[in-house]
Design a protein that fits this description.
The structure is a single chain. With 138 residues, this protein is of the alpha+beta class. It has a single domain, classed as Cytidine Deaminase, domain 2 (3-Layer(aba) Sandwich), CATH 3.40.140. The protein has helices spanning 3-14, 54-64, 92-105, 124-127; strands spanning 27-32, 37-41, 71-77, 110-114, 119-123. It has a five-stranded mixed sheet. The longest helix is centred in the C-terminal third of the chain and has 14 residues, at 92-105. The protein is globular, with a radius of gyration of 14 Å. The termini are far apart. The structure holds tetrahydrodeoxyuridine. The site of tetrahydrodeoxyuridine has 13 residues, from α2.
Length: 138
Amino acid sequence: MSDAKLIEAAREAATHSWSPYSDYAVGAALRFDDGAVITGTNVENASYGLALCAETVAVAKALGEGRRGGLIEVAVVGPLDKGDGAPITPCGRCRQVLNEIAQLGGTDPRVLCVGSDEVREIRLSALLPHAFGPAHLD
Ligand code: THU
């Protein structure tokens, strides 16, 4: 699957966002080494602090379906008409959540951060250097 298709999957996921409080719809798409794509979108709550980010929802879906690694690419898309158009990067908590499934399979996924004029590709290890992960608990 091309980067453009993965980004399109993330964009499609964002159409299902439940984000009436922030009005900031985010979509994430995870691509695995067997070709599977699992998406997620942000899910907010009237109790604001309970919001779940798109990447976290996608990882929870993947782990909940039994995946324990094989994550090779991630695309993250936010609203292109907000902010300065800079590529959206996963929040700190999402970096840690992504690291869990990445480290389980020993991969360092490419993270495609989509902005209005550019797609910035950053390795998860660059987004979260010196990560704490499941291997520390062995
Ligand atoms: N959000 C994500 O879904 N992913 C991120 O990496 C950053 C922020 C969501 C959380 C909240 O619903 C909205 O964007 C505004 O922060």
